[in-house]
Write a structure and sequence with these properties.
heterodimer; A: 280 residues; mainly alpha; MetI-like fold; 2 domains; 77% helix; flat; B: 313 residues; two-stranded antiparallel sheet; 14 helices; 1% strand
């Protein structure tokens, strides 16, 4: 009798937990789904139907209108170039620096490392007005270089992340390779890189996501259509077409979807190692 | 390394030590070559700007012509600028709306997921999806959700028999609506860290406590929460620093309004620099924000260091 009661209690609790999780999961994806759904609704039904009513009949005409009004392809190309170059640069430069900080013994290592860490506390806005000054002195305002240069060499956070991971790779592996005559380059290529795929996938994703989504610096550093990025473009659309949802919602969908695709591609690595980054 | 030393000692003592020295110089050189690109980026685009911001705060600059030295005028202006302090209060309010709600929800989700169950991985992926959404796009979407005519929120409220306020034109409601974007976006991400923290707590501790006849509420407050402190610390410090820098959703959704009610510090600094062309003054304001964030972070460090005494390594 008692065990039966306990079993019923457990089942009730299990169901409650699933219910809670299902509601949370639904709230997590509802804005994505409803935006995508609304983007395919004809302009006439967009306002008259509820957000959860499926887009039947559906139409591509909102996207055509959007592309006619705005150079969306241009925004996406610009953003992909900027985010791609920054991500690639950060992967290479961060790996090199993180290896030196994790494994090489050199004078100045500790103060330098802690200098990097201390700068993690600096809010971005503090650097942006001086960066504008630097970039206008170099006459780079309104170029790709202005968007790329400040972030392509890596961030303290990235170096910290990868260094922590490198430190968990057994030093014996490296010592053995050194005895076999491998240099630092060989060790990086044959030992560290193959073992560090999860953290590098995480760094790549975090960097790409942050760059793709960043608004403030591109807003300051660019002003013409030839290098405008998606964030600035969508924000401008909101200003211009404040209540024309048939233009705004497809634009939001276009801005959101590429990252979802990338994430689903790498999610196995990312979910695991995002959590790891917080532990130590 | 040891092999190299062994090989070196075969030669005469003098050449051995000079060879060691040469080896050390070479490895130092190598290390600096490896960190050179990062170090350049760090000095040119992080350290230099921080130095420049302090210099700029002593100048008046309209972004175009050469800056004019004005001494401490920007600081005097800041202390007398009611709008700046209002923006700082707004930012603090935004952080307070955000962090507690987001952290409690994340903890609940983490507790729910911290058990052997089917679909745990699926739910984890689901909960992290909001993290990568572009805040600018979310601003657009939330404007639609909270629209009084076509928005889903007012529709849901009216189904329950109530009428919603005009969310984004109300000085009371605009800030909570802006904050809700951030809560939606970061709850799942925060949950991941807390879940990792929960999974690091050894099961034996709970078993021992159960033998002592404790109930689940006691176990939560006496074991789970104290042992979760390191994860909680990380999550709070990084989320608080991030929240203090709110800009994107305010820029898209409310432009700081209605009135000044959603003007956060970052938005005010942006306005001063790029709409009013008071870049020197904006530099001064950004130093104020920096100081506040630093102070709050130090307080958190103190609080958590004093209380984190458990170590299972």
């Amino acid at each position: 009798m008692a065990t039966k009661q306990r079993r019923v209690g457990q089942r009730v609790r299990g169901t409650t937990v699933y219910l809670l999780l299902a509601v949370g999961g639904l709230i997590s994806i509802a804005p994505y789904l409803m935006t995508l759904n609304a983007a395919f609704k004809p302009q006439s039904t967009l306002l008259s139907t509820q957000a959860w009513t499926p887009a039947v009949p559906s139409t591509w005409s909102n996207f055509t209108t959007l592309w006619q009004q705005y150079d969306m392809s241009g925004f996406i190309v610009h953003t992909t170039i900027v985010a791609g170059v920054i991500t690639l640069g950060q992967l290479v430069f961060t790996t090199l620096a993180a290896y030196a900080f994790a494994r090489l013994d050199f004078p100045g290592r500790e103060p330098l490392f802690w200098g990097f860490i201390a700068m993690m506390m600096v809010p971005q806005i503090v650097t942006l007005i001086p960066l504008f000054l630097i970039m206008s002195h170099l006459q780079l305002i309104d170029t790709y270089r202005a968007l790329i240069l400040p972030y392509v060499f890596g961030t303290p956070y990235g170096i910290f992340l990868v260094r922590q991971y490198f430190q968990t790779i057994p030093a014996d592996l490296e010592a053995a390779a050194r005895i076999d005559g491998a240099g630092t380059w060989g060790i990086l290529r044959r030992i560290m890189l193959p073992l560090s795929k999860p953290i590098l996938a995480t760094l790549a994703t975090i960097t790409f996501v942050n760059t793709w989504n960043s608004l403030l610096w591109p807003l300051m550093a660019t002003s013409s259509e030839r290098d405008e990025v998606v964030t600035v473009g969508v924000a401008a659309l909101q200003g211009q077409f404040a209540s024309e949802l048939h233009i705004l919602l497809p634009a939001a969908a276009v801005a959101l979807l590429p990252l979802i695709a990338i994430f689903l591609l790498f999610q196995r690595h990312i979910v695991r190692s995002i959590a790891l980054t917080g532990l130590k | 390394m040891s092999a190299n030393i062994a090989r070196a000692t075969v030669g005469s003592p003098a050449t051995a030590s000079s060879r060691m020295r040469r080896r050390r110089t070479r490895s130092t050189l190598e290390a600096y070559l490896l960190i050179a690109p990062s170090l350049f980026g760090f000095l040119a685009f992080l350290v230099a700007p921080v130095v420049i911001v302090f210099v700029l705060s002593l100048f008046s600059w309209n972004l175009i012509t050469a800056p004019q030295f004005v001494g401490l005028a920007n600081y005097r202006r800041m202390f007398a600028d009611g709008q700046a302090w209002h923006a700082l209060l707004n930012t603090a309010y935004y952080v307070l709306l955000n962090i507690p709600l987001q952290t409690v929800l994340a903890l609940l989700l983490a507790l729910a997921l911290n058990r052997k169950m089917r679909g745990a991985k699926f739910f984890r992926v689901l909960f992290v999806l909001p993290w990568m959404a572009m805040p600018v796009a979310l601003g657009v979407i939330w404007n639609w959700f909270f629209d009084p005519r076509s928005g889903i929120i007012d529709h849901l409220i009216s189904m329950l028999g109530f009428t919603g306020p005009n969310w984004l034109t109300s000085t009371t409601w605009a800030m909570p609506v802006v904050a809700s974007v951030n809560v939606w976006q970061y709850t799942g991400y925060t949950m991941l860290f807390l879940l990792a923290g929960l999974q690091a707590i050894p099961q034996q501790v709970y078993e021992a406590a159960a033998l002592d006849g404790t109930n689940s509420v006691q176990r939560f407050f006496r074991i789970t929460l104290p042992l979760l402190r390191p994860s909680m610390f990380f999550v709070l410090v990084t989320n608080v620093i991030g929240s203090f820098q709110q800009f994107d959703t305010v820029y898209v959704m409310t432009q700081g309004g209605p009135g000044q009610s959603t003007t956060t510090m970052n938005y005010y600094i942006y306005q001063q620099a790029f709409q009013l062309f008071h870049a020197g003054y904006a530099a001064t304001l950004s130093i104020l924000l920096f100081a506040v964030i630093l102070l709050v972070t130090i307080i958190q460090f103190r609080y958590f260091r004093k209380r984190t005494i458990y170590d299972f390594s």
